[in-house]
Structures are given as C-alpha cells and as structure tokens.
Amino acid sequence: MIPSPVYRIVTKRLIIRCYNPEDSPLFESSISESLEHLKPWMPWAHTESEETLQSRMRSFRSLFDQNQDFIYGIF
C-alpha cells in the first residue's frame, strides 16, 4: 500500500498544504493580481467567481482526501 501524502509541509519560509474552501478569497486575490498573465494559459481564469473558486477548493480537497489528486498551495 502506498502511503497517502501529507496535508501540510512547513519550512522556515513557507507552508505547502492542500487547499481548503476557506482559501478561495486568497486564491481569488492571487488570480486578480496576475490575471493578464494567467489568461493565455488558464482559460478558467476568465470566468472565476468566488463561488466557483470555493467549489474548486472543495474539489481539490475532496480529490486529495480520496487519494486521487494531490494539489498543493504554497503559502
């Protein structure tokens, strides 16, 4: 059996952890600040709202909890 990845990695300079729905305002802020750079590479950046971001964060966490996909945020 392959062990599940850790939810959180902490170093002196940053935290790497799986996303939570509560992260959507910070994620939205990051998107807004970089929108023009993101649009050519990430089509979803054109239409993200706070509700869809929360849904995206729930999906990230759900897939992580089910050992299907491991998307981390860097904080």
Describe this structure in words.
- The protein is of the alpha+beta class and 75 residues long.
- Helices cover 40% and strands 13% of the residues.
- It has one domain.
- The protein has helices spanning 24-33, 35-38, 50-65, and strands spanning 8-10, 15-18, 72-74.
- A three-stranded antiparallel β-sheet has the order 1-2-3.
- Strand 1 and strand 2 (15-18) form a beta hairpin.
- Helix 1 packs across helix 3.
- The radius of gyration is 14 Å and the shape is globular.
- The model has no long low-confidence stretch (mean pLDDT 87).
Q: What series of H and E elements makes up the topology?
A: EEHHHE
The overall average pLDDT, rounded, is: 87
Euclidean distance between termini CA atoms? 30 Å
**Rounded to an integer, what's the Rg over CA atoms?**
14 Å
Helix content: 40-55%
How many discrete domains?
1
> Strands across the major sheet, in which order?
1-2-3
- In DSSP terms (H or I, runs of 4 or more residues), the helix count works out at 3
Strand portion: 5-15%
The main pleated sheet reads as: 3 strands, antiparallel
Poorly predicted segments: none
Oligomerization: single chain
Using the alpha-carbon principal axes, give the shape.
globular
Number of strands: 3
